[in-house]
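Quick one: structure for this chain?
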Amino acid sequence: MNIITISREFGSGGRELGKRMADVLGWDYYDREIIDAVAKEEGLDADYVNAVLERHEWWSVPITFHRSFTVSTAPSTDLLVKEKEVIERIAKAGRNCILVGRNADFFLRSYDPFRIFVCAETEAKIRRCRERAEDQAGLTDKEIERQLRRIDRSRASNRELVAGDRWGERSSYHLTVNTTDWNLKELAPAVAAIAQRFFERNSAAL
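Got it. Here's what it folds into:
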């Protein structure tokens, strides 16, 4: 069983790249599906669960996944714990898969996933946001750029709090992909081939 995890800057196309790679490889793909599973198990609306986890409302509670496992009675923290459990359950199912975001690379580190970080130049991220999100139509480029920076700062803080390391730190990933000048449909097979070579090499070393 092989696992690819994708961390990404907002607007870089990491989600689309992951989905296209899953299609190329014929693997399972998880992104929003993780939130849907958490919501179903907790009897909550999926949009609410996503909003809580994206806003990181559990930050006021001590979370020390990277040192020792802390459980809290705070509902928002329970959702983070449940998210971790869902991700671990996906891995235990034993199927080749790609997981996007959610600190999956940290939670599944014992499975030695192929860890990818996706980034892009600001102009490319703004352009992608405009192409894929109708709610960006009324915003200026400067406003979108501020939104990009805010979300990425939030992801960086999330990573440090949960995993105890720096989000986007190159030593934490096997491959960093800059999507700025790439058509993701063309890029996906190339990145998938690199990932396959990683697993072949690891398998041969056993």
